[in-house]
Amino acid sequence: MTTMTAEATAQAVGLESVTKTYGAVRALDGITWSFPRGGFTAVMGPSGSGKSTFLHCASGLDRPTAGTVRIGGTDIGRLGEARRTRLRRERIGFVFQAFNLIPSMDVEQNITLPLRLGGIEADPAWLREIVARVGLADRLRHRPSELSGGQQQRAAVARALVTRPDVVFADEPTGALDPRTARDVLRLLREAADLTGQTIVLVTHDPAAAAWADSVLFLRAGRIVDELAAPSAAAVAARWDSL
Ligand SMILES: Nc1ncnc2c1ncn2[C@@H]1O[C@H](COP(=O)(O)OP(=O)(O)OP(=O)(O)O)[C@@H](O)[C@H]1O
Ligand SMILES: [Mg+2]
């Protein structure tokens, strides 16, 4: 019993036999995986292999067709909609592949939205720090339509980090960024794991981005087909080629 408790606390997010089907499409085909607390995991796989679906189910944004998802030991399938939303708001940060910024709000309002939804005042020092780290200090009054794709992506990253969530899921957060800004965002995620013990799950197509993680999961046709620990960009690229 002691080991079960230790396991539950060491695990930030756990999936057990998770399946997600859309009609005849099996987007996830029996995924069992446990993300360790404070770990930084990259998820790679061909387009359509189920990476976004995996993140949506693991974060409680979407309900699996079958299987169990636990966040911080709580089986979220057993929670009602209101409690699930609250747990997600308090413990999860999400960077969407399509950013999902609110067009009518400026950058600062977008970044602080998760706090306002939870009735929490933004800590000005923390807000200044993440805004500086994503390089948007001079864009706070701009609307998303007035930003470049990379700037929108960085605003989405800041929004995911502003609540200091236990787990940050990021779906290709560096896809639209130049190499230098991409490095800044990856460093931000790496520090979130190393300095504040946050759990990071990053979807990427870029072996160099995956190399920032502690381990890389490879998805194919809705299944985890491989894992690579302590990845180097070269090792990730080689493993990718052999998939
Ligand atoms: N809402 C949906 N309705 C129907 N099918 C869907 C839906 N969402 C995803 N799918 C299907 O599920 C499979 C996995 O999609 P998913 O978006 O998870 O892939 P992905 O690995 O994130 O791809 P990409 O790298 O292109 O973002 C695909 O075949 C996709 O067409
Ligand atoms: Mg995707």
Folded structure, characterized:
With 243 residues, the chain is of the alpha/beta class. It has one domain: 3-Layer(aba) Sandwich (Rossmann fold). The chain is 39% helix and 26% strand. Strands 6-7-8-3-9-10 form a six-stranded mixed sheet, sandwiched between helices. The protein has a four-stranded antiparallel sheet with strand order 2-1-4-5. Strand 7, helix 7 (179-196) and strand 8 (199-203) form a beta-alpha-beta unit. The structure holds adenosine-5'-triphosphate and magnesium ion. Magnesium ion is lined by residues 51-52, 97, 171.
Keywords summarizing the entry:
globular; binds adenosine-5'-triphosphate; 26% strand; Rossmann fold; 9 helices; 243 residues; nucleotide-binding; 6-stranded mixed beta sheet; 4-stranded antiparallel beta sheet; ABC transporter ATP-binding protein; single chain; alpha/beta; binds magnesium ion
Brief overview, please?
This is ABC transporter ATP-binding protein. It comes from Actinomadura graeca. This protein has 243 residues and is α/β, with parallel strands linked by helices.
Write the SSE topology.
Layout: H1 2-10, E1 11-22, E2 25-36, E3 40-44, H2 51-58, E4 66-71, E5 74-75, H3 81-91, E6 92-95, H4 107-117, H5 124-133, H6 149-161, E7 167-171, H7 179-196, E8 199-203, H8 207-210, E9 215-220, E10 223-229, H9 233-242
Parallel strand pairs: 3-8, 3-9, 6-7, 7-8
Antiparallel strand pairs: 1-2, 1-4, 4-5, 9-10
Helix pairs in contact: 4-6
Bound molecules: adenosine-5'-triphosphate and magnesium ion.
Magnesium ion (MG) is lined by residues 51-52, 97, 171.
